Amino acid sequence: MKKIYEIQLSGIKIGTTAFEFADTPMGVVYGKINFENVDSPYNLFKNHCQQHKVTINQDDKEYKFIDTQVIPKLKVYLENRTELVGWGGAISGMEKGNDFEIQFGGINSKIMKTEFAQHYYDYYGNESDLIKIQVDEQFKKICESILARNLNINQWAEIESSDEFQTERYHGGFDTTEMEFCFSYYIEKQEYWFQLNLNDIERIINAKVEFLYPRKAE
User: Fold this and answer.
1) What does the alpha-carbon distance between residue 20 and residue 198 come to, in Å, rounded to a whole number?
2) Residue closest to 11 by CA, chosen among 42, 40, 48
3) Under 8 Å CB-to-CB from 183, ≥6 apart: which residues?
4) Could you tell me which residues come within 8 angstroms of residue 160 by beta carbon, excluding any fewer than 6 positions away?
């Protein structure tokens, strides 16, 4: 499930990433940075690191290549606008070809299982407490009914109903604690949990999401 994460430096949005890759056991995700309104990423990061005394591991002025340690003022935000929690993000890349990557480490297993469930499942497979299920017509109809309401997150929060949608295999609704749609999925008598935001729902309807990764209920 391809999600888009906002990257901010000193409170200003500089771009996004999809965190396409992960070192799951180490709690690290990384991905290409897609910059927005940044003329020179190399100068941006170099000047920031020098100003805020962030260690630069490698700096090549000729090729405009830079590799940094964790930058405290570099923040990543999930699609529900909450900040990604961990040790923080570091930057590595070269301006030629706009080839910059963000590495974000110190992510705990709970966040890896929920926010980065595909990476978690791809690494641990059947040894994990996650399962991989294909998005079926039953759940697509739930997603269609959600989008048909044409409500934003705040409006969903005002009419919270955690069990509004119930079918043979899926039970759930909008949860104001998570500020997302939370569902139970049942295989025989075993219950599994998963949650989605409105962007996820739209991606399912647009056939950009093929699989879900529910985790065994606690």
Assistant:
1) 20
2) 48
3) 165, 170, 171, 172, 193, 194, 195, 196, 214
4) 173, 174, 175, 176
Helix axes 198-205, 137-148, angle to 10 degrees: 120
Q: How far apart are CA 109 and CA 88, in angstroms?
A: 16
Structural domain of 101: 5-112+120-125
User: For residues 182 and 172, is the Cβ–Cβ distance under 8 A?
Assistant: yes
User: CB-based contacts of 30: which residues, under 8 Å, 6+ apart?
Assistant: 19, 20, 21, 22, 23, 101, 102, 103, 104
Within 10 angstroms of residue 155's Cβ, the number of other Cβ atoms is 11
Token representation of residue 163: 């069990």
| 38 token code pair | 């940044």
Sheet holding 5-9, edge to edge: 34-35, 12-17, 5-9, 74-77
Both tokens assigned to 127: 């040894």
Per-residue pLDDT reduced to its tens digit, 25-56: 999 999 999 999 999 999 999 999 999 999 99
Does residue 196 share a domain with residue 98? no
181-212 pLDDT, tens digit per residue, is 999 999 888 999 999 999 999 999 998 889 99
Residues 9 and 101 in one domain: yes
